[in-house]
Amino acid sequence: MDPIILFFMLGLVAGLLKSELRLPSAVYEFVSILLLLSIGLKGGVELALQPFLGLLPDVLVAIVIGLLLPLVAFTVLSRLGGFKRADAASIAAHYGSVSVGTYAVAAAWLTSRGIGFDAHLPLLLVVLEVPAILVGIVLARGIFSDTHWHKVAHEVFLGKGIVLLLGGLLIGWWSDPAALAGIEPLFFDLFKGILAIFLLEMGLIAASRFGSLRQYGIFLLAFGLAMPLFGAVIGAVAGTLMGLSVGGTMLFATLIASASYIAVPAAMRISVPEANPTLSLTASLGITFPFNVLLGIPLYWKLAEAVHAGLPG
Amino acid sequence: MDELKPHSRKLLTIVTEAALEASLCRDLERLGAHGYTITNARGKGSRGKREAGWDSDANIRIDVVCDDATAERISTEMRRRYYDNYAMILLLSDVQVLRPEKF
Questions:
Q1: So what's the ipTM on this one?
Q2: Predicted TM-score (pTM) of this structure
Q3: Which residue in chain A is spatially nearest to B87 when comparing CA positions?
Q4: Does domain A3-9+24-308 have CATH number 3.90.650.10?
């Protein structure tokens, strides 16, 4: 059993038993800043070693998936689930975007097994954050609404996630590799320890969402489990066709399977205020995040292997 | 000793979701508040519990000291724009200030 998964379960159990344990919000903030920067830096260092233009087709594929996935989720939620338009649009945006925490766990899973992955996955992570937010807002409001797009753009592009991931990427890219050795102990060597503390807090947060799960019932539960599986299949097929390695395909599938809980909730709260944030956060944090971390990641590895064996890569 | 003579003002306290901070600050300045104080907060209300553990789970408390007319303008605007969709409460009280030119 991987210790970081056990940290997550410790958080879940402590939360469910109503333990007094609370991480100060400044600690959570710091740990998530370190994670975002580490992922960005690592990607930047690797990206520096390859030509940039070759990556454009993969970036385009990521954008297209990020635009289409929320449309599927929206249709399912409003037609089958009977959710109100704003709620369906907001949940769809969460599922079309990605979770950095889930990505970090999947990357650590690969690394601890000595499996490599393609260098530009962190770049695809950044790219996938954005399109679903815009689709979600348009689905809720219509395209000619009075949405203040400059405010939305500010919220999306200057939010913590994008600034730190992209900032880390650029720093890693432009830095002299020899000089990077000085910051490696903090950002690379301590990565798993930092991830462990992050997951402890995520366990506590996920547990605090279980209460509202009872209230919103079986459809949301089914959606929170089925949507990541659907996303993983799309991601695994797309990743294989893009020519990613098996490790890269698994990470891409995990990204498509994951649901956002940082960038999208903040953007939706401002842009689609009538959507109930409890619904989307219960689904993404209470169901999908624990599912992906505990069961999804090993499953997506098997899926990536199977698709690679079946499709010409 | 004119500086020691107290002057009457209103203290308007807004407790709301941290997500609103940037847009509230713009509103307050536009509506004529000369300043405000923001503190992080957590608590429980009709829209559930906010424990400030992470980004979307945090509250803020904004204190604004201003004259009666500004307090009226701000509370009308808050009611109009935010009451329906956001967790928000407003408290209004009379306070005495010692440096009236600041409010």
A1: 0.80
A2: 0.89
A3: A273
A4: no
